[in-house]
Specification:
heterodimer; A: mainly alpha; 9 helices; 74% helix; globular; B: mainly alpha; disordered C terminus
Chain lengths: 190, 203
């Protein structure tokens, strides 16, 4: 019995030690949480509040994390669920989606440009900014299930991982991704 | 060729997606806020449980209540217990189901909001119901105690004052809550249902 208890406690210790710390999570997944917040809220200050709420939800949910689960999909579930609760409360605010979408034009002026090789010219920067704004606007107009699936896909998650986060079937996810991407590309080009 | 063009488009969308503005955050501040929120949640739980204990302790104290008053206290204690259990369940759901899959969470949230709206509806109508119960209670109690008409009228005056101070604001508060939860549920429902690429209705 003693050995069994000792073994069990060592397993618990091992599992606990595998759980990443909150600081590591924010360093590794902070930008991911910011993008999740961006897919639900256009206004910069509200987006920051939402981002903060996501981080708090992550902190609180870390106790329930089991090390055999995929940390990224686990965190994405927490982040998206927090955002859904946020969106439900939006009904009580002024129907200000249009205001927020337009207000965001200014807010999203500073972008995290990924091209490290050559700094983009001002014209390029303006074009890229507009394109990102347009993409974000289109994504925020999607229904929540499609929005979640497409943003998870744009984050590079596999169909199986998206299924883990959303609880939808892999075939359904394939259909949603194909349709939504086609529609996004059509609207981006038009 | 078509496939190549599609994957290039997908890569282009992915690249654009990654270019969003990032947000910097003070992790120590988040930890402080989260701990404070956790403390508050525990405090609310303790208050809920204490209110439950208070209702039942009152019953078991050897105060010189008549059987009718004791019956009234038992009725209230049962109602409070039901309410506290419901609150505990809601807090439990909000604390421990945040890591559900998103579709499960949608369904749970929607159900919870609809339930909240229903509870607010019952809460709203319980105000006038309790008011009527109190009138009947005072009347029967006055008859049993052999109160004079002036004493009875005094009791009703207190009841009138109590309803103005307590029941009317309670009714308004519950009415607002009911509408708030209904609006939230309808909003979520509108954002979840229909085909995946349709735009949401509340724009």
């Amino acid at each position: 019995v003693y050995i069994a208890i000792k073994n069990a406690s060592s397993i618990v210790i091992k599992e606990t030690s595998l759980t990443p710390t909150f600081d590591t999570i924010i360093t590794d997944y902070g930008p991911l949480f910011a993008r999740v917040a961006g897919s639900y809220e256009a206004n910069e200050s509200l987006r920051q509040e939402l981002y903060q709420d996501i981080c708090m939800a992550v902190w609180q949910s870390l106790n329930a994390y089991r090390s055999d689960a995929n940390i990224k999909t686990y965190l994405l579930r927490v982040a998206h669920n927090r955002c859904i609760s946020y969106v439900s409360k939006e009904a009580n605010r002024l129907k200000a989606d249009e205001y927020r979408e337009h207000a965001s034009d200014k807010n999203e002026a500073t972008l995290n440009l990924a091209s490290d090789l050559k700094p983009p010219s001002p014209e390029q920067k303006v074009i890229e900014t507009k394109q990102v704004q347009q993409l974000m606007l289109l994504i925020r107009q999607l229904k929540i299930p499609a929005r979640q699936v497409i943003t998870l896909s744009l984050e590079g998650l596999s169909y199986q991982e998206i299924a883990e986060v959303t609880g939808l079937s892999v075939s359904n996810i394939g259909v949603i991704i194909t349709r939504t991407k086609k529609e996004l590309q059509r609207q981006m080009q038009s | 060729m078509i496939h190549d063009n599609q994957s290039q488009d997908n890569d282009a969308l992915g690249a654009l997606w990654q270019q969003q503005a990032t947000i910097t955050i003070d992790t120590d501040k988040i930890k402080r806020l989260a701990k404070s929120q956790q403390r508050k949640q525990r405090c609310y739980l303790a208050i809920d449980v204490c209110s439950l204990l208070f209702a039942w302790v009152l019953l078991f104290l050897d105060l010189s209540f008549t059987a009718f008053v004791k019956g009234f206290i038992v009725f209230n204690a049962i109602m409070v217990t039901a309410l506290v259990l419901m609150l505990l369940k809601l807090r439990w759901v909000s604390l421990f189901h945040i890591n559900d899959s998103t579709s499960e969470y949608h369904a749970r949230l929607l159900k919870q909001l609809r339930n909240n709206a229903r509870i607010a509806f019952y809460n709203k109508h319980s105000t006038w119901f309790v008011f009527v119960i109190l009138i009947v209670f005072l009347f029967i109690n006055s008859l049993l105690e052999g109160d004079t008409l002036s004493a009875m009228l005094m009791h009703y005056a207190y009841l009138g004052g109590l309803s103005l101070v307590f029941f009317v604001p309670w009714y308004i508060w519950a009415h607002k809550r009911q509408h708030r939860f209904e609006a939230e549920a309808n909003n979520i429902q509108a954002l979840i249902t229909n085909s995946p690429t349709q735009h949401h209705q509340n724009k």
